[in-house]
Amino acid sequence: MDPCCTTRPPEASAPVRCPSCDRPGRKVDRITVKALLRSGALARLSAPGHRFCPGAECPVVYFGNGEVFERPDLTLPVFQKEAPGHRTVCYCFAISEDDLRREMAATGRSTATERITSLVNADRCACEVRTPQGSCCLGNVAAAINAAKEVAESGGEPLALSEETPRHA
Ligand SMILES: [Zn+2]
Question: Could you list which residues have their CB under 5 Å from ion ligand 1?
Answer without folding.
Answer: 18, 20-21, 53, 55, 58, 60
